[in-house]
Every structure is written in C-alpha cells, then in structure tokens.
C-alpha cells in the first residue's frame, strides 16, 4: 500500500515565500487558466467535428457561469462550467474558477497558512473526459494557484485506461508519461520522479488495494521560492496534457469495440466514482468553500456500473 501523503518529504509541504509574492500573478494566472480552457475546448470540438456524421452537427460545449455565494452577501468570485456530450466524448467537462473569501473555522486548519488568517484566493482549471469508445482512456487534468498567508501552485494529470491489460493501453500510458516527463524536465529533473510517485500514491483506492489508472503526475504546495518559475511549470503541464491527450484520442477513437469491452468500461468507471467521492481533495475543497455543486461533481461519468 502506498504511503500516506503526510509521509512525503518535508520539502513537498513547506511553503515559501509569503502571499505578497503572488499578488502580481493573480491576474495572469486567471487569464492563463481561461486561455487553457479555450485551447482545450477548441481541440475537443475539432475532434468532434472530425467524427460528426451527416445526420447530426458536431457537438459543442455548453458554458454555464456561476457565482460563489457568501454568507454576508459580498462578492466571492465564481467560474464557468463547460460540458460537451458528443460522438467521441460521452462527457467531457472543463471548469475554470476564481474564488476568494474566508475558510470556515473547521476547514482553515487543514490549509497551510489559513490558521493565521482564514482569507484565501484561488484560481484554477479542471478537466475530465469520459469517452464513448472503451478503447480510448479517460483522462483528467487540473492546475491551480492558491493564496492564503502563503502561496503555491498545484495540479497534475492522469490517465485511466478502460482496458488496462492491453498493449494499446500500455502504449497510450507510455506516451502520456513521456509528455509529462518532458514538461517536468524543462524545469527540474527531480520533478517527474517525485510527482509521478506522488500521483501513484494519491490516485489509489485503499479499500480495493489498487490504483485508479495508469497514473501521471500530481503536485501540490509547489513553492520553490520563485513564483514565476512555478507558474511557468504549471503552464507547461497544462499545455503538455492538452497535446498528448488529444493525440491519444485521435489514435484510438475509430477503433471498433465490443459490448464486453463497454461493460468493462462501465465497471472501471465505478472506480473513478469511488475515488472522487471518497478521497479526492479537490472535491472536498470545492464543497467546503461554497463552490458550485454541479461543477464540482462534473467529474463523475454519465453512466457507470458495479458488478
């Protein structure tokens, strides 16, 4: 069984420098997450257009804006949920949000820097794709910037093959990891091995004794001392994910599949649901900070089965 997250090296949990160093990055970070959203959505819509038949127009994203409620009626930010249901993507969602306010008393002690002052600012993007063809893997990516009395970046991406024992699934996983390794190596050669291990430990279902999928990278509380460099790394992770995932989709989306493979896909999706509802820290953060419930639970697949 993987070690707990608290057993990570101390340097993964120590946050420097203070929040003032992140003030100048708030507007650029928000703009980047929205730009990455637009880039990803355009890539998904292009794939849907390639797959569209004569009997129906290609699927497009529906965007729904939401505002974060606050107890005193003050502005608390908000975001936009984008969802597409099509021929290739059974359900793909992209959330961007920028929110601020105060953590609740019971939650602030769980967030670095919030015990001293409960105020926070957070911005980020989260994407999840569940595919029609069981031979195309599901995938997830998020990157974010969070500021309390400290500041840091977090995020990552991971791949979940529905038929993990096949040569094709192993080939896709190798391509996915190679792209993320290249993004990491441009910044620090220690990032990929550290963040891959972190991902393997995080995306793990202890009640089943198994990994959720083929892994990827995961990082949090990234505060190297150079906020601009950390932001550049977060940008590279997002851009690498968009490129490699869309390449994998195009490689597999026209392969024939069987009813038995569809059944296996639906069962494996159950693992996805179990992780997101039982262990996912992003789900907990969103629910504890007044996020939009539909946007938070957008990651769940549209159809799932337990044997």
Task: Note down, in words, how this protein is organized.
- The chain is an alpha+beta fold.
- It has a single domain, classed as Coproporphyrinogen III oxidase, aerobic (oxygen-dependent coproporphyrinogen oxidase, 3-Layer(aba) Sandwich).
- It has helices at 26-51, 105-108, 167-185, 191-202, 227-252, 259-278, 281-288, 293-296; strands spanning 62-67, 77-84, 89-102, 119-131, 138-147, 151-160, 204-205, 210-211, 215-222.
- The strands form two sheets. The protein has a seven-stranded antiparallel β-sheet. The chain has a two-stranded antiparallel sheet with strand order 7-8.
- Helix 1 packs parallel to helix 5 and helix 3 (167-185) packs antiparallel against helix 5 (227-252).
- It is globular, with a radius of gyration of 19 Å.
Principal-axis shape: globular
If helices are DSSP runs of H or I spanning 4 or more residues, what is the number of helices?
A: 8
**Major beta sheet, specifics?**
7 strands, antiparallel
- Span between termini: 24 Å
Question: Might you state the CATH topology name?
Answer: oxygen-dependent coproporphyrinogen oxidase
């Amino acid at each position: 069984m993987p070690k707990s997250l608290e057993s990570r090296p101390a340097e993964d949990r120590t946050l420097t420098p203070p929040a003032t160093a992140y003030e100048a990055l708030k507007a650029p970070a928000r703009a980047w997450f929205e730009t990455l959203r637009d880039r990803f959505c355009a890539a998904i819509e292009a794939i849907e257009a390639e797959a569209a038949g004569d009997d129906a127009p290609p699927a497009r994203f529906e965007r729904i804006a939401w505002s974060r409620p606050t107890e005193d009626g003050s502005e608390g930010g908000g975001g936009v949920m984008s969802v597409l249901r099509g021929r290739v993507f059974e359900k793909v969602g992209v959330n961007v949000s920028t929110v601020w306010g105060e953590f609740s008393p019971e939650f602030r002690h769980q967030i670095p820097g919030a015990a001293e002052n409960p105020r926070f600012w957070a911005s980020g993007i989260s994407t999840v794709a569940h595919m029609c063809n069981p031979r195309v893997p599901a995938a997830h990516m998020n990157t974010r910037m969070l500021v309390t009395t400290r500041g840091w970046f977090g995020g990552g991406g991971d791949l979940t093959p529905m038929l993990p024992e096949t040569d094709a699934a192993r080939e896709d996983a190798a391509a996915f990891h190679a792209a993320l390794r290249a993004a990491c190596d441009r910044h620090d050669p220690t990032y990929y091995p550290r963040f891959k291990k972190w991902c393997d430990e995080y995306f793990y279902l202890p009640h089943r004794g198994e990994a959720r999928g083929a892994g990827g990278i995961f990082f949090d509380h990234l505060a190297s001392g150079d906020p601009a460099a950390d932001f550049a790394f977060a940008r590279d992770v997002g851009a690498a994910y968009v490129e490699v995932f869309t390449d994998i989709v195009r490689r597999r989306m026209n392969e024939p599949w069987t009813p038995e493979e569809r059944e296996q896909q639906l069962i494996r999706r159950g693992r996805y649901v179990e992780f997101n509802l039982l262990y996912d820290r992003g789900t907990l953060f969103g629910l504890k900070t007044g996020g939009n419930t539909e946007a938070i639970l957008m990651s769940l697949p549209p159809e799932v089965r337990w044997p």
